[in-house]
Write a structure and sequence with these properties.
This protein has one domain. 39% of the residues lie in helices and 20% in strands. It has helices spanning 13-24, 36-57, 108-123, and strands spanning 61-68, 71-76, 85-88, 96-98, 100-101, 104-105. A four-stranded antiparallel β-sheet has the order 1-2-3-4, with no helix packed on it. 13% of the residues are buried.
């Protein structure tokens, strides 16, 4: 992600979900093409659009940590979602969505304190 995307507000969750769903249904199916080269070209173009869409959907957010298996936690720093954490699970065919239960999104301070507590437990530290 380019740092210049931080100056743009993070998209509203409903808009982001709608745009992602519209893009997802446009994924080319190999059976719709007469030859493999045409399919590969269409799929390559779809993947380029997918990357541009992800850049847009992470505007105003910073990738804070890798959670394993390609999953990442993001902090929104600009826009209405400011201070909230999001999880990117696209590496496992998941989505990019708010961390936490619906209507109980995780704020940065809660995420960070949970991380500190778990890290201390792993390291055998006690308060």
């Amino acid at each position: 992600m380019s740092h210049d995307r931080l100056r743009f507000p993070f998209p509203a969750p409903d808009e982001s979900s709608r745009v992602q769903a519209e893009h997802s249904v446009k994924e080319p199916a190999e059976s719709a093409f007469e030859d493999e080269d045409a399919f590969r070209e269409a799929y390559r173009a779809w993947l380029e659009e997918d990357e541009a869409l992800f850049d847009w959907s992470t505007s105003g957010a910073v990738n804070l940590s890798h959670e394993g298996c390609g999953y990442c936690s993001w902090l929104v720093v600009f826009g209405p979602e400011r201070g909230r954490m999001w999880l990117d699970e696209r590496a496992g065919d998941g989505t990019f969505h708010p961390l936490g239960a619906p209507h109980a999104q995780v704020e940065f301070a809660d995420w960070y304190l949970d991380w500190v507590e778990k890290s201390e437990a792993v390291a055998g530290c006690r308060r």
